[in-house]
Design goal:
The chain is of the alpha/beta class. The protein contains 18 helices and twelve strands. Strands 2-4-5-7-6 form a five-stranded mixed β-sheet. A five-stranded parallel β-sheet has the order 9-8-10-11-12, sandwiched between helices. Helix 8 packs antiparallel against helix 9 (257-285). The radius of gyration is 43 Å and the shape is elongated.
Length: 611
């Protein structure tokens, strides 16, 4: 792959050359010592046959050259890549020097017209060229420097004799030289290309790793941004919800009460949108733990049908939820959420026809399918529909179509529960979602429809329909650093005849608890915000305060209220097992939680109550 960056090409070339130099120097010491020993043995054999004193000088010259090659500074892996060209030139000069000295020996042997010695010389030179060529393939300059001088010395010495036999041997030597060089050039090219491919793949892998790390950082930053933005939005919205609930309670049965009801519907709708984003954070944080059990699908389908039938009728669509008599092994609440999100999505994008929900048994599995006759999903968009905030054909961000998080939650729940979700769609014809669940044996009784939520919205939206059964606490202490929230909470609690006291920090809360204990009028409940001023951790502060003042330290029920949505903090809250409500808190949900905690409070010891 060619690069358009010259500096990148230069760096790549240096790395390739460094590998070539390393390959040649890998056999440097062994090759030098072997060559020195062979020169001495071969020279002595030739001298014993020809008795030519010039051979002794040739042997001496080659041994001296080998000694120089052996002791001269050489390349090591510690050398930087930028010096590779220098070491390539140096070893090329050294092998060329050895080859030029070797090129003299044919002129000392061939003129003697001793065919056995000439044949031995040819075998030695040809073998030496073949062996050296393989080790010198990585460096073409060294390959040519070693093979050309000694081969040309042999070829010219043979041709100089002029007779047919020597000319034939010269031609054979020339042909062998050409073949050797051609093979060496080809091998050099293959080695270079393989190294370039290797380094390019390493660079691609490194860039891919950087992109993955950048994507992970972006995802973490997105989560932090959503957590911060959600918290900052929830704070004023929480105050609005509390003020609105108090106003609604005061204006009940009056004409102005209708405006208060409309206000609270708008606040609840905005809170539901924020809670949808909170669901994503909960799933990412791992604070939702599934409880798999046998689930009767018909008992799950019935409330789904009740929930969406009115909406389908309003859009003049047919909704068919077919009974099957099948059982599956799953978490009923989370499975209900998965299917409700799929049905909600199907109704949003269907203008004509209808939506069908069916279950089919397939071996050890059960397929729950949600089919619609809506706009469908194009192939190029199918990979994005499970992304957060991605919506098909909604460039204007029509609020009636939601936030585009429903299918993202479906995917997260699919992974959490181990229920694969498959999708098939044809643009203009509709979409078919399939949830693959493990089959289960039918159980006696089974889950009743009331076991599932009757609304698709979160608990905060369902809360207005709840009734506070248990009595409310008589005295409540609120710890929150924001003045508006303290005033709004005081107004709401006092409108329900609760004696409420609000403080801004832990020291004020400790003083209020101590004073209440001394007066014999202890608080029945402690409400604490998670994030307090100056970075104080409300969970830690609430746990310390809930131990109560005085020697007896009667424990006070603690209810945590937070606008936090960061996964790490959600996980910490879950591990603490402290009851928690997420801002904006609907008044009915707050009062219900307060009543339940008060009812669960253990009876106080007589010695701790002043009469």
């Amino acid at each position: 792959m060619a690069s358009s960056d010259p500096s990148a090409d230069h760096t790549l070339g240096q790395r390739v050359l460094r590998e070539h130099v390393a390959s040649v120097y890998d056999t440097y010491i062994v090759s030098t010592l072997t060559h020195m020993a062979f020169v001495v043995v071969f020279g002595c054999i030739i001298y014993s046959q020809l008795r030519n004193l010039s051979l002794l000088f040739w042997i001496g010259g080659l041994v001296i050259a080998d000694i120089y090659v052996f002791f001269t500074p050489r390349w090591t892996p510690l050398r930087p890549a930028r010096e590779s060209a220098y070491w390539a030139r140096k070893i090329s000069r050294m092998v060329t020097l050895v080859s030029m000295i070797t090129a003299v020996v044919p002129w000392l042997i061939v003129p003697y017209d001793n065919l056995p010695m000439t044949s031995l010389l040819m075998a030695v030179i040809v073998g030496s060229c073949a062996r050296a060529a393989q080790s010198l393939w990585p460096l073409k300059s060294a390959l040519f420097g070693y093979t050309l001088p000694m081969s040309l010395g042999l070829i010219t010495a043979l041709a100089w004799q002029g007779d047919g036999l020597h000319l034939f041997l010269a031609a054979a030597g020339a042909a062998y030289l050409l073949l050797t060089l051609r093979a060496g050039i080809g091998q050099h090219r293959l080695l270079t290309e393989s190294l370039m491919l290797r380094f390019e793949n390493e660079a691609l892998a490194a860039r891919l790793g950087e992109q993955i790390a950048a994507t992970e950082r972006a995802s973490e930053e997105k989560t932090r941004f959503l957590g911060t933005a959600s918290h900052d939005l929830r704070q004023p919205l929480h105050a609005i919800a509390l003020f609105g609930a108090a106003l609604e309670n005061e204006l009940r049965d009056r004409p102005e009460g209708r405006n208060a009801e409309r206000l609270m519907r708008a606040v609840n709708a905005l809170g539901a949108s924020l809670d949808t984003m909170l669901d994503v954070s909960r799933l990412d944080a791992g604070v939702i733990t599934p409880v798999p059990q046998p689930v009767q699908l018909d008992a799950l389908f019935l409330p789904l049908n009740h929930t969406f039938s009115a909406r389908a009728e309003q859009k003049q669509l047919q909704l068919r939820v077919r009974a099957s008599g099948l059982w599956v092994h799953s978490d009923p609440q989370l499975l209900h959420r998965m299917l409700s999100n799929l049905m909600d999505n199907a109704l949003k994008y269907t203008a004509h026809g209808g939506v069908t929900v069916i279950a089919r048994e397939r071996g050890d599995s059960v397929w729950v399918e949600v089919r619609d006759t809506g706009i469908g999903i194009a192939a190029e968009q199918s990979g994005r529909i499970f992304e957060e905030f991605y919506q098909i054909n909604n460039p204007g961000r029509d609020r009636s179509r939601g936030l585009g998080i429903g299918l993202s939650i479906v995917q997260r729940l699919s992974r959490l529960l181990g229920h694969p979700v498959q999708m098939h769609s044809r643009p203009g014809r509709g979409t078919h979602f399939r949830v693959v669940l493990p089959a289960a044996r039918a159980q006696a009784g089974g889950l009743l429809p009331s076991s599932f939520p009757s609304e698709t919205a979160d608990a905060s939206q369902q809360a207005p329909q709840r009734r506070v059964a248990a009595p409310l606490p008589g005295r409540v202490l609120l710890l929150d650093d924001e003045l508006e929230i303290r005033e709004a909470m005081m107004g709401l609690l006092r409108s329900h005849a609760i004696d409420a006291h609000a403080v801004a920090d832990e020291a004020g809360a400790a003083a209020a608890l101590q004073k209440a204990h001394g007066e014999g009028r202890p608080f029945d409940l402690l409400l604490c915000d998670y994030r307090l001023a100056d970075g104080v951790d409300g969970l830690d502060a609430g746990l310390r305060l809930s131990q109560g003042p005085g020697e007896g330290r009667a424990e006070i029920p603690l209810l945590l209220i937070t606008g936090e949505t960061s996964p790490a903090r959600l996980q910490r809250v879950r591990e603490s097992q402290v009851p928690v409500l997420f801002k904006p808190v609907v008044a009915a949900a707050l009062l219900q939680a307060m009543a339940e905690l008060t009812a669960a409070k253990p009876a106080a010891e007589p010695s701790l109550i002043d009469v």
